Task: structure prediction
Amino acid sequence: MVSRKYTSDYTLETYMDGRGRLRERASYTGSYYEFCNDSASIRRSTWILAIGFTVLALCVFVPLIFGGEYAKQMYVFLPLAFGLIPLYLLAAAFRRILMVKGPVIREHKDKIVARLNTAAAFMLIVSVLNLAAAVVYFIAVKPDWAMGAFAVLGLCQSVQLFSFKKAFAMKEAPKNSEH
Result:
């Protein structure tokens, strides 16, 4: 399905190319956005996000790869596998944040904010399911403290993701700023 959400932010300009023919190109006329926090705070938050992403990746991949009998249980494997989705969303938002140089267009702002929010909410759900699976496995099958620790660590990291909503908040840039 084609989304036309951002078409109102563009206008078509007619120009003359090098060969004397009339051409059209899209020109952005929408609002520009910038981070609410200063650049030092954004840099610090970006590093914290990178460390949090690494810890979350470890919380997902270590039990999947080295879980042994633990990861072979379907009620354990599915929440761990679904943990890859918020990791992808977080990586995509992180890539967009690293690409930001000055004010950004509405499409990029929406993608950064939406992906961070979705990743945080989805990771919280997946982490709670992982913790529940670890408790069930711990009670029903055998005590495995390491996998439970990864579930608790993943839950803590997913709660931390909600702090990035404020850290990477954006506001409309002043009209007189250079784009």
Summary: The chain has a mean pLDDT of 78. The beta strands are 10-16, 22-28, 32-35, 104-105, 170-172. The longest strand covers residues 10-16. The two ends are 31 Å apart (CA to CA).
